Each structure stands twice: as C-alpha cells, then as structure tokens.
C-alpha cells in the first residue's frame, strides 16, 4: 500500500508539479531528505515512528529502512514539486495551501496508523505531535526555499525542542 501512496504522489507531481524549476527546488529536496536521514540516524535505536508494509509488496518493502528510503527519494521530491511548485502568491491562499498539505499528510498518517496499520508510533509520539510536526515541516520547507540559512538555524532550534520533549538516552543513539 505504501508503494501505491508514493506512486500516487509521483503521478501527481508528474502531472501538476513544476519540473521546469527542479534546479531551484533541488536544495530544498536535499534539506527534506537530509532531515529525515538525520532523524533515522539519531533515532536508530529509539524510534518515534516506523513504517511497516502490511498489505502489498511485503517482499519488496521488508522493513522501515527500505520503505523510508522509497519515501525519501520518490515521495519527498514529488511533494516539493507540488508544494513549492504551485505555492500561491497571496497570503490567504498561502495559509490555505500550507493547511492543505498539513491536513493531507496528517490524514494519510491517521488512516495508516488506525486503519491500515502501515505506521506505528513509539516512545510517546502520537497524532497531535504528528500534526504539529507537519505544520513545522511545511513551514520550514517554504522558509528553506526562500532563505536556507534561516531554515537551518530554525531547524536546529526545532530539533533541540524535540529532544527536550522526547529525550533520547545517549546509549540509544547510534
């Protein structure tokens, strides 16, 4: 099922994404991927959430790492081509666009958590935290696109905040 989600995002990006501007989105795509890679590295032995394929392609998508790499290298670029590529100019429409993407990511996670069992939360993570995370993530992606250094600084603060809220024992870090 997870591969179907990623393919739907890819098809949507092919149809509606701004592929002509891929060079301007490339740094933000890398920012998105590196952030997830950092999370996976630091939380290798202390997960906040994990993916698990339970419906289709279980032989291909055998574990969280394989699924997460698929999401990172297909899903995230597709998201950026759609999210930034069609980002509105007016403030009101911008707020609605961010809200749409937060809602989309959050509702997909909710369905995957409660109905399809494609994701599991661990160590105190829950849906309200996922919604907050999605809000920060989509705002940060836009900030990074406009001002990468500001986004890097704000990301460090966000990571420090999350480490306070979800302490990771040093012996659990890889």
Question: Short summary of the structure?
Answer:
The chain has 174 residues and is mainly alpha-helical. The protein has 6 helices and 2 strands; from the N terminus they run ααβααβαα.
Report what the structure shows:
The radius of gyration is 16 Å and the shape is globular. With 174 residues, it is mostly helical. Helix 1 (2-16) runs parallel beside helix 3 (64-83). The chain contains 6 helices and 2 strands; from the N terminus they run ααβααβαα. It has helices at residues 2-16, 22-42, 64-83, 91-114, 127-146, 148-165; strands at 49-51, 119-121. The model has no long low-confidence stretch (mean pLDDT 92). Helices cover 68% and strands 3% of the residues. The longest helix is centred in the middle third of the chain and has 24 residues, at 91-114. It has one domain (2-172).
Features:
single chain, 174 residues, mainly alpha, two-stranded antiparallel ribbon, 6 helices, globular
Distance between the termini: 30 Å
Count of alpha and pi helical runs: 6
Q: Could you report the average pLDDT, rounded to the nearest whole number?
A: 92
Q: What is the CA-atom radius of gyration, in angstroms?
A: 16 Å
Largest sheet: 2 strands, antiparallel
Low-confidence stretches: none
Reading the helices and strands in chain order gives HHEHHEHH
Q: Report the sheet-strand fraction.
A: under 5%
The largest beta-sheet arranges its strands as 1-2
Shape: globular
Q: By helix and strand content, what is the structural category?
A: mainly alpha
Write the topology of this structure.
Elements: H1 2-16, H2 22-42, E1 49-51, H3 64-83, H4 91-114, E2 119-121, H5 127-146, H6 148-165
Antiparallel strand pairs: 1-2
Helix pairs in contact: 1-3, 2-3, 2-5, 4-5, 5-6
